[in-house]
Design a protein that fits this description.
The protein is an alpha/beta fold. The chain contains eleven helices and twelve strands.
Protein backbone atom coordinates (compact mmCIF):
# COMPACT_ATOMS: atom_id res chain seq x y z
CA UNK A 1 0.00 0.00 0.00
CA UNK A 2 1.33 3.42 -0.97
CA UNK A 3 -0.29 5.65 1.61
CA UNK A 4 -1.87 5.82 5.04
CA UNK A 5 -3.82 8.99 5.84
CA UNK A 6 -4.45 9.78 9.50
CA UNK A 7 -6.93 12.51 10.42
CA UNK A 8 -7.45 13.58 14.03
CA UNK A 9 -10.88 15.06 14.66
CA UNK A 10 -12.40 16.90 17.60
CA UNK A 11 -15.93 18.24 17.08
CA UNK A 12 -15.40 18.87 13.36
CA UNK A 13 -18.18 16.75 11.87
CA UNK A 14 -19.14 19.00 8.94
CA UNK A 15 -15.64 19.88 7.78
CA UNK A 16 -14.41 16.32 8.37
CA UNK A 17 -17.13 15.21 5.95
CA UNK A 18 -15.93 17.79 3.42
CA UNK A 19 -12.32 16.70 3.89
CA UNK A 20 -13.09 13.02 3.30
CA UNK A 21 -15.28 13.85 0.31
CA UNK A 22 -12.43 15.87 -1.22
CA UNK A 23 -10.11 12.86 -0.89
CA UNK A 24 -12.65 10.58 -2.56
CA UNK A 25 -12.89 13.01 -5.48
CA UNK A 26 -9.16 12.65 -6.15
CA UNK A 27 -7.47 9.76 -7.91
CA UNK A 28 -5.24 8.98 -4.96
CA UNK A 29 -2.72 6.12 -5.02
CA UNK A 30 -3.64 2.94 -3.16
CA UNK A 31 -4.41 4.18 0.34
CA UNK A 32 -6.21 3.73 3.61
CA UNK A 33 -7.79 6.40 5.81
CA UNK A 34 -7.73 6.25 9.60
CA UNK A 35 -9.71 8.79 11.62
CA UNK A 36 -8.94 9.19 15.30
CA UNK A 37 -11.78 10.91 17.13
CA UNK A 38 -10.82 12.66 20.35
CA UNK A 39 -14.13 12.27 22.20
CA UNK A 40 -16.15 14.58 19.96
CA UNK A 41 -19.54 15.70 21.27
CA UNK A 42 -21.01 16.20 17.81
CA UNK A 43 -22.09 13.55 15.29
CA UNK A 44 -18.62 12.92 13.86
CA UNK A 45 -18.49 9.20 14.63
CA UNK A 46 -22.04 8.54 13.48
CA UNK A 47 -21.38 10.43 10.25
CA UNK A 48 -18.26 8.37 9.63
CA UNK A 49 -20.02 5.05 10.19
CA UNK A 50 -22.94 6.05 7.95
CA UNK A 51 -21.11 7.75 5.07
CA UNK A 52 -17.57 6.33 5.12
CA UNK A 53 -17.69 2.70 6.28
CA UNK A 54 -14.36 2.08 4.54
CA UNK A 55 -12.62 4.46 6.95
CA UNK A 56 -10.98 2.92 10.02
CA UNK A 57 -12.32 4.75 13.07
CA UNK A 58 -10.62 4.96 16.44
CA UNK A 59 -12.94 6.41 19.10
CA UNK A 60 -11.20 7.82 22.15
CA UNK A 61 -13.20 8.24 25.34
CA UNK A 62 -11.14 11.32 26.21
CA UNK A 63 -9.37 14.05 24.28
CA UNK A 64 -5.85 12.62 24.34
CA UNK A 65 -4.32 15.45 22.30
CA UNK A 66 -3.05 15.78 18.76
CA UNK A 67 0.30 14.00 19.10
CA UNK A 68 -0.98 10.92 20.89
CA UNK A 69 -4.00 10.60 18.58
CA UNK A 70 -1.78 10.68 15.49
CA UNK A 71 0.46 8.04 17.02
CA UNK A 72 -2.61 5.87 17.65
CA UNK A 73 -3.59 6.14 14.01
CA UNK A 74 -0.16 5.54 12.54
CA UNK A 75 0.36 2.53 14.81
CA UNK A 76 -2.26 0.79 12.66
CA UNK A 77 -1.02 2.21 9.36
CA UNK A 78 0.37 0.01 6.59
CA UNK A 79 1.44 2.51 3.93
CA UNK A 80 4.94 3.34 2.68
CA UNK A 81 4.07 6.97 3.30
CA UNK A 82 2.16 8.55 6.16
CA UNK A 83 0.02 11.63 5.54
CA UNK A 84 -0.77 13.65 8.65
CA UNK A 85 -3.83 15.63 7.62
CA UNK A 86 -6.05 18.00 9.58
CA UNK A 87 -9.81 17.61 9.36
CA UNK A 88 -10.11 21.28 8.36
CA UNK A 89 -8.47 20.74 4.97
CA UNK A 90 -9.61 20.09 1.43
CA UNK A 91 -7.47 18.10 -0.99
CA UNK A 92 -7.47 19.65 -4.47
CA UNK A 93 -5.85 19.13 -7.88
CA UNK A 94 -4.19 15.81 -7.13
CA UNK A 95 -2.15 17.26 -4.26
CA UNK A 96 -1.57 13.95 -2.47
CA UNK A 97 -0.26 12.11 -5.53
CA UNK A 98 1.96 15.08 -6.36
CA UNK A 99 3.51 14.88 -2.89
CA UNK A 100 3.98 11.11 -3.25
CA UNK A 101 5.62 11.63 -6.65
CA UNK A 102 8.00 14.15 -5.13
CA UNK A 103 9.09 11.76 -2.37
CA UNK A 104 9.46 8.95 -4.90
CA UNK A 105 11.99 11.06 -6.81
CA UNK A 106 13.85 12.44 -3.76
CA UNK A 107 15.00 9.63 -1.50
CA UNK A 108 16.88 11.96 0.87
CA UNK A 109 13.73 13.93 1.73
CA UNK A 110 12.02 12.57 4.83
CA UNK A 111 9.16 15.04 5.17
CA UNK A 112 7.41 17.21 2.60
CA UNK A 113 4.44 19.51 2.65
CA UNK A 114 2.29 21.40 0.13
CA UNK A 115 1.38 25.00 -0.49
CA UNK A 116 -1.45 25.87 1.89
CA UNK A 117 -4.33 28.09 0.80
CA UNK A 118 -6.85 29.67 3.17
CA UNK A 119 -10.61 29.69 2.70
CA UNK A 120 -10.17 33.22 1.29
CA UNK A 121 -7.94 31.86 -1.49
CA UNK A 122 -4.84 33.54 -0.11
CA UNK A 123 -1.57 31.74 0.52
CA UNK A 124 -0.85 30.69 4.08
CA UNK A 125 2.70 30.85 5.36
CA UNK A 126 3.27 27.27 6.50
CA UNK A 127 7.10 27.12 6.53
CA UNK A 128 9.23 28.44 9.33
CA UNK A 129 12.63 28.53 10.97
CA UNK A 130 12.98 26.67 14.22
CA UNK A 131 11.75 28.71 17.22
CA UNK A 132 14.26 30.95 18.93
CA UNK A 133 14.54 33.96 21.24
CA UNK A 134 15.47 36.28 18.35
CA UNK A 135 12.50 35.22 16.23
CA UNK A 136 10.07 35.88 19.07
CA UNK A 137 11.70 39.19 19.96
CA UNK A 138 11.37 40.44 16.38
CA UNK A 139 7.73 39.40 16.31
CA UNK A 140 6.84 40.98 19.66
CA UNK A 141 8.76 44.18 18.96
CA UNK A 142 7.19 44.69 15.54
CA UNK A 143 10.55 44.62 13.74
CA UNK A 144 9.20 41.94 11.41
CA UNK A 145 6.31 44.17 10.36
CA UNK A 146 8.58 47.17 9.91
CA UNK A 147 10.99 45.25 7.68
CA UNK A 148 8.78 42.74 5.82
CA UNK A 149 11.48 41.71 3.34
CA UNK A 150 14.26 41.35 5.90
CA UNK A 151 15.47 37.82 6.55
CA UNK A 152 17.08 39.06 9.76
CA UNK A 153 13.99 40.65 11.30
CA UNK A 154 11.14 38.70 9.70
CA UNK A 155 12.05 35.05 10.27
CA UNK A 156 8.70 34.16 11.87
CA UNK A 157 6.88 31.95 9.29
CA UNK A 158 9.47 33.09 6.73
CA UNK A 159 7.42 36.12 5.74
CA UNK A 160 10.37 37.53 3.81
CA UNK A 161 9.98 34.73 1.24
CA UNK A 162 7.42 34.49 -1.59
CA UNK A 163 6.85 30.70 -1.25
CA UNK A 164 7.29 30.37 -4.98
CA UNK A 165 9.73 27.49 -5.33
CA UNK A 166 10.69 24.10 -3.92
CA UNK A 167 12.83 24.71 -0.86
CA UNK A 168 14.27 22.88 2.13
CA UNK A 169 13.05 24.43 5.38
CA UNK A 170 13.48 23.89 9.11
CA UNK A 171 9.88 23.05 9.81
CA UNK A 172 6.39 23.04 8.31
CA UNK A 173 2.87 23.29 9.66
CA UNK A 174 1.47 19.92 10.67
CA UNK A 175 -1.92 20.43 9.01
CA UNK A 176 -0.72 18.49 5.94
CA UNK A 177 2.60 16.65 6.06
CA UNK A 178 3.71 13.62 4.06
CA UNK A 179 6.26 11.56 5.98
CA UNK A 180 8.15 8.39 5.10
CA UNK A 181 6.78 5.64 7.31
CA UNK A 182 10.25 4.32 8.14
CA UNK A 183 11.28 7.76 9.41
CA UNK A 184 8.12 8.10 11.51
CA UNK A 185 8.79 4.75 13.14
CA UNK A 186 12.51 5.44 13.54
CA UNK A 187 11.68 8.62 15.47
CA UNK A 188 8.97 6.84 17.49
CA UNK A 189 6.33 9.16 16.08
CA UNK A 190 5.31 12.40 17.68
CA UNK A 191 6.37 13.24 21.22
CA UNK A 192 3.20 12.76 23.27
CA UNK A 193 4.36 15.27 25.88
CA UNK A 194 3.01 17.83 23.40
CA UNK A 195 -0.74 17.88 23.84
CA UNK A 196 -1.27 20.48 21.15
CA UNK A 197 1.20 22.71 19.23
CA UNK A 198 4.94 22.25 18.54
CA UNK A 199 4.68 18.48 18.04
CA UNK A 200 5.41 18.78 14.32
CA UNK A 201 8.18 21.30 15.03
CA UNK A 202 9.83 18.81 17.36
CA UNK A 203 9.40 16.02 14.81
CA UNK A 204 11.02 18.11 12.06
CA UNK A 205 13.86 18.97 14.46
CA UNK A 206 14.51 15.29 15.13
CA UNK A 207 14.29 14.49 11.40
CA UNK A 208 17.00 17.07 10.70
CA UNK A 209 19.19 15.51 13.40
CA UNK A 210 18.86 12.22 11.49
CA UNK A 211 20.05 13.93 8.33
CA UNK A 212 16.63 13.87 6.62
CA UNK A 213 15.42 16.85 4.63
CA UNK A 214 12.15 18.70 5.26
CA UNK A 215 10.97 20.19 1.97
CA UNK A 216 8.25 22.56 0.82
CA UNK A 217 6.67 21.48 -2.46
CA UNK A 218 4.39 24.22 -3.87
CA UNK A 219 3.24 22.26 -6.93
CA UNK A 220 0.83 20.50 -4.55
CA UNK A 221 -1.82 22.68 -2.90
CA UNK A 222 -4.23 21.98 -0.04
CA UNK A 223 -6.96 24.29 1.24
CA UNK A 224 -6.67 24.79 5.00
CA UNK A 225 -9.44 26.49 6.95
CA UNK A 226 -7.47 26.66 10.20
CA UNK A 227 -8.41 26.47 13.87
CA UNK A 228 -11.80 24.79 13.54
CA UNK A 229 -11.33 22.40 16.47
CA UNK A 230 -10.41 25.24 18.82
CA UNK A 231 -13.17 27.70 17.92
CA UNK A 232 -15.86 28.63 20.37
CA UNK A 233 -19.60 28.43 19.87
CA UNK A 234 -20.06 32.09 18.96
CA UNK A 235 -20.77 32.97 22.58
CA UNK A 236 -18.15 35.52 23.66
CA UNK A 237 -17.67 34.08 27.15
CA UNK A 238 -17.27 30.57 25.73
CA UNK A 239 -14.88 31.82 23.04
CA UNK A 240 -12.71 33.56 25.64
CA UNK A 241 -12.63 30.35 27.65
CA UNK A 242 -11.59 28.40 24.57
CA UNK A 243 -8.88 30.97 23.87
CA UNK A 244 -7.45 30.52 27.35
CA UNK A 245 -7.37 26.75 26.96
CA UNK A 246 -5.67 27.04 23.56
CA UNK A 247 -3.16 29.54 24.94
CA UNK A 248 -2.39 27.22 27.85
CA UNK A 249 -1.54 24.40 25.43
CA UNK A 250 0.52 26.72 23.24
CA UNK A 251 2.71 28.10 26.01
CA UNK A 252 3.08 24.78 27.82
CA UNK A 253 4.22 23.17 24.57
CA UNK A 254 6.52 26.06 23.72
CA UNK A 255 8.32 25.89 27.05
CA UNK A 256 8.60 22.11 26.86
CA UNK A 257 10.03 22.37 23.32
CA UNK A 258 12.68 24.90 24.40
CA UNK A 259 13.63 22.89 27.49
CA UNK A 260 13.82 19.62 25.57
CA UNK A 261 15.77 20.84 22.53
CA UNK A 262 17.78 23.86 23.72
CA UNK A 263 18.10 23.40 27.47
CA UNK A 264 16.84 25.12 30.60
CA UNK A 265 18.57 28.50 30.04
CA UNK A 266 16.84 28.91 26.65
CA UNK A 267 13.50 27.97 28.16
CA UNK A 268 14.05 30.52 30.92
CA UNK A 269 14.96 33.18 28.36
CA UNK A 270 11.78 32.66 26.33
CA UNK A 271 9.70 32.71 29.51
CA UNK A 272 11.30 36.03 30.43
CA UNK A 273 10.53 37.44 27.00
CA UNK A 274 6.90 36.32 27.26
CA UNK A 275 6.67 37.86 30.71
CA UNK A 276 7.99 41.19 29.44
CA UNK A 277 5.59 41.18 26.49
CA UNK A 278 2.67 40.29 28.76
CA UNK A 279 3.45 43.29 30.97
CA UNK A 280 3.65 45.47 27.85
CA UNK A 281 0.22 44.26 26.71
CA UNK A 282 -1.29 45.21 30.08
CA UNK A 283 0.15 48.72 29.79
CA UNK A 284 -1.11 48.98 26.21
CA UNK A 285 -4.53 47.82 27.32
CA UNK A 286 -4.74 50.65 29.85
CA UNK A 287 -4.08 53.19 27.08
CA UNK A 288 -6.39 51.76 24.38
CA UNK A 289 -9.68 53.48 23.57
CA UNK A 290 -11.03 50.50 21.64
CA UNK A 291 -12.81 48.40 24.28
CA UNK A 292 -12.61 45.15 22.29
CA UNK A 293 -8.86 45.49 21.68
CA UNK A 294 -8.36 46.61 25.26
CA UNK A 295 -10.11 43.48 26.51
CA UNK A 296 -8.02 41.26 24.23
CA UNK A 297 -4.73 42.92 25.26
CA UNK A 298 -5.64 42.60 28.92
CA UNK A 299 -6.74 38.98 28.62
CA UNK A 300 -3.71 37.83 26.62
CA UNK A 301 -1.27 39.95 28.64
CA UNK A 302 -2.53 38.52 31.92
CA UNK A 303 -2.37 35.01 30.53
CA UNK A 304 1.17 35.44 29.21
CA UNK A 305 2.33 36.62 32.61
CA UNK A 306 0.71 33.59 34.24
CA UNK A 307 2.19 31.25 31.63
CA UNK A 308 5.68 32.70 31.98
CA UNK A 309 5.53 32.40 35.77
CA UNK A 310 4.08 28.88 35.67
CA UNK A 311 0.54 29.68 36.82
CA UNK A 312 -1.45 29.18 33.62
CA UNK A 313 -2.11 25.46 33.72
CA UNK A 314 -1.29 23.33 30.69
CA UNK A 315 0.09 19.82 30.59
CA UNK A 316 3.81 20.23 30.22
CA UNK A 317 4.87 23.76 31.14
Amino acid sequence: MDLSIVIVSYNTCLILDECLASIKEQKVSAHEIIVVDNASRDDSCRMLRDKYPEVTLIENSDNVGFARANNQGFALARGRYFLMLNSDTLVVEGAIDKLIGFLNKNAEVGVCGPRNIGRDGKRQNNCDHFPGFWNSFCYYSGLGSMFPKSRLFNRCWMRYWDYGEVRDVDRMSGCSLLIRSDLYRELNGLDENFFMYFEETDFCHRAHLKGRRVTYFPDAAIIHYGGESSKGSGNEAVSQGVNRVVWSYFYASQYYYFRKNYGFPSMLAIRSLDLAYGIYLLFRSALRADLKKRSYDSDLGSFMIKAATGHAGGKNG
